[in-house]
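$ ./design --mode recover --in tokens.txt
reading tokens...
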């Protein structure tokens, strides 16, 4: 995979490094405000409710439902060229936190608001031998 077709990877910041470190361990976490207990995502320096600047990384179940979605037919980056069409979704996790992600291409024909989803982890080996892990979501099997 050359640099042009490699999926861009986020650069962890002082605020998000705990999220990415947990992902490497295949754990989904968000910030829980130490002041008022609010769960929040994306990682940010201060609680939007009480303005406390301390937090604790808190594990989530990884289960949720689709809050809203759109289907992308145009690849906006070469790394996604062989994946269109795919669904870009806002997930509402059981704990009430929302995250934006994409679903695997095979899920595009079955995506629907309210459909159950589950988290999985996609490991990428980098050129320097290290790995980077993305928390991803897919439609959950319904019994
Ligand atoms: Zn707070």
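writing sequence...
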């Amino acid at each position: 995979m050359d640099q042009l077709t490699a999926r861009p990877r986020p650069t962890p910041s002082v605020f998000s490094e705990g999220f990415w470190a947990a992902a490497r361990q295949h754990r989904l976490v968000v910030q829980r405000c130490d002041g008022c207990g609010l769960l929040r995502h994306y990682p940010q320096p201060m609680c939007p409710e009480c303005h406390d600047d301390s937090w604790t990384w808190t594990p989530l179940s990884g289960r949720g439902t689709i809050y809203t979605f759109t289907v992308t037919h145009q690849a906006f980056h070469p790394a996604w060229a062989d994946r269109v069409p795919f669904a870009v979704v806002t997930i509402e996790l059981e704990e009430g936190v929302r995250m934006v992600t994409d679903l695997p291409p095979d899920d595009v024909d079955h995506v629907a608001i309210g459909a159950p989803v589950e988290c999985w982890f996609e490991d990428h080996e980098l050129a320097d031998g290290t790995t980077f892990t993305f928390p991803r979501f897919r439609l959950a099997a319904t019994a």
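exit 0
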